[in-house]
């Protein structure tokens, strides 16, 4: 089943006299439950697409559908409701609130969600049950990122969007964070969309969209993973 379908998506940023064509006519299908990696040089449009899929930004032209819902036809309030109900975000820098414990950081999201996990269960799922009452400064970078993953999955989003989730971590720690994301994909059926420069992440993907100059230049399919599922 398709989670997202995009048709002729364009995004042009206008700053003063200059126009930047960040997306130049992108057609795409993203399948429910897949692990999809967006790969490509800096400036090729990956973050722009991720922000549009997550309802943080809008395309200049084109259509984007999430199941039966045309996201590009929603007003701002409806787009915010879509985002809160369906999308979890994990960014390179963990964006935890320093004055709140790990559990309180997760609770920020579960308190405003319809059918959330218990914050302690979300922390248990990322292997941090013992760190519930720790503050961010008392946690390693990898642990802080796993709290950010717990916060993102605690509302049971259908889709998890990750922009360089291991970019600030050493490779061993990054692998632990990746395993956590893969586990959410397996156990919760979460569609996982990741921007990365890390070859290890690309290897765990079902598919890779190779971006070049605002377009998807090619799509690589990982036959091993597809046939195993
Ligand atoms: P990537 O994630 O692949 O590095 P981006 O989607 O961030 O690429 O950027 C694509 C292009 O759009 C780049 O040329 C970038 O400088 C430009 N761009 C991104 N965001 C903005 C913005 N808010 N205003 C103006 N230009 C932007
Ligand atoms: P809400 O869904 O509560 O309205 P926002 O619209 O502020 O939240 O953003 C959605 C999520 O994306 C939040 O977790 C916010 O912190 C995060 N976010 C948005 N833009 C960025 C960014 N540029 N860098 C890091 N986090 C961001």
Topology overview:
Layout: E1 2-15, E2 18-31, E3 35-39, H1 46-53, E4 61-66, E5 69-70, H2 76-86, E6 87-90, H3 102-110, H4 119-125, H5 141-153, E7 159-163, H6 171-188, E8 191-195, H7 199-203, E9 207-212, E10 215-221, H8 223-228
Parallel strand pairs: 3-8, 3-9, 6-7, 7-8
Antiparallel strand pairs: 1-2, 1-4, 4-5, 9-10
Helix pairs in contact: 3-4, 3-5, 4-5, 5-6
The structure holds adenosine-5'-diphosphate (2 copies).
Keywords: ATP-binding, Cell inner membrane, Cell membrane, Membrane, Nucleotide-binding, Transport
Domain ABC transporter: 4-229
GO molecular function: ATP binding; ATP hydrolysis activity; transmembrane transporter activity
| Oligomerization state | single chain
- Gross morphology: globular
- Separation, N- and C-terminal Cα atoms: 14 Å
Helix content: 25-40%
Helix/strand class: alpha/beta
Q: Evaluate the radius of gyration.
A: 17 Å
Q: Sheet with the most strands?
A: 6 strands, mixed
Number of helical stretches of at least 4 residues: 8
**Proportion of β residues?**
25-35%
Number of strands: 10
Structure description:
InterPro entries: AAA+_ATPase, ABC_transporter-like_ATP-bd, ABC_transporter-like_CS, MacB-like_ATP-bd, P-loop_NTPase. The chain has helices at 46-53, 76-86, 102-110, 119-125, 141-153, 171-188, 199-203, 223-228; strands at residues 2-15, 18-31, 35-39, 61-66, 69-70, 87-90, 159-163, 191-195, 207-212, 215-221. The chain is α/β, with parallel strands linked by helices. It has a 6-stranded mixed sheet, sandwiched between helices. Strands 2-1-4-5 form a 4-stranded antiparallel sheet, with helices on one face. Strand 9 (207-212) and strand 10 form a beta hairpin. The protein is globular, with a radius of gyration of 17 Å.
């Amino acid at each position: 089943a398709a989670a997202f379908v995009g048709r002729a998506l364009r995004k042009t940023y206008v700053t003063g006299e200059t126009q930047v064509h960040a997306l130049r006519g992108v057609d795409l299908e993203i399948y429910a439950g897949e692990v999809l990696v967006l790969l490509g040089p800096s400036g090729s449009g990956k973050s722009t697409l991720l922000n549009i899929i997550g309802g943080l930004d809008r395309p200049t032209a084109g259509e984007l559908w999430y199941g039966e819902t045309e996201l590009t036809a929603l007003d701002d309030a409806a787009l915010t409701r879509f985002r809160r109900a369906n999308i979890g975000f994990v960014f390179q820098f963990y964006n935890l609130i320093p004055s709140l414990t790990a559990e309180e950081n997760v609770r920020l999201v579960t308190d405003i969600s319809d059918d959330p996990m218990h914050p302690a269960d979300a922390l248990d799922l990322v292997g941090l049950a013992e760190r519930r009452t720790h503050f961010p400064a008392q946690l390693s970078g990898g642990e802080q990122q796993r709290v950010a993953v717990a916060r993102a999955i605690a509302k049971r989003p259908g889709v998890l969007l990750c922009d360089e989730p291991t970019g600030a971590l050493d490779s061993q720690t990054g692998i632990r964070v990746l395993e956590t994301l893969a586990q959410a994909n397996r156990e919760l059926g979460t569609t996982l969309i990741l921007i990365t420069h890390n070859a290890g992440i690309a290897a765990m993907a079902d598919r890779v969209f190779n971006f070049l100059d605002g377009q998807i230049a090619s799509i690589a399919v990982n036959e091993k993973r597809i046939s195993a599922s």
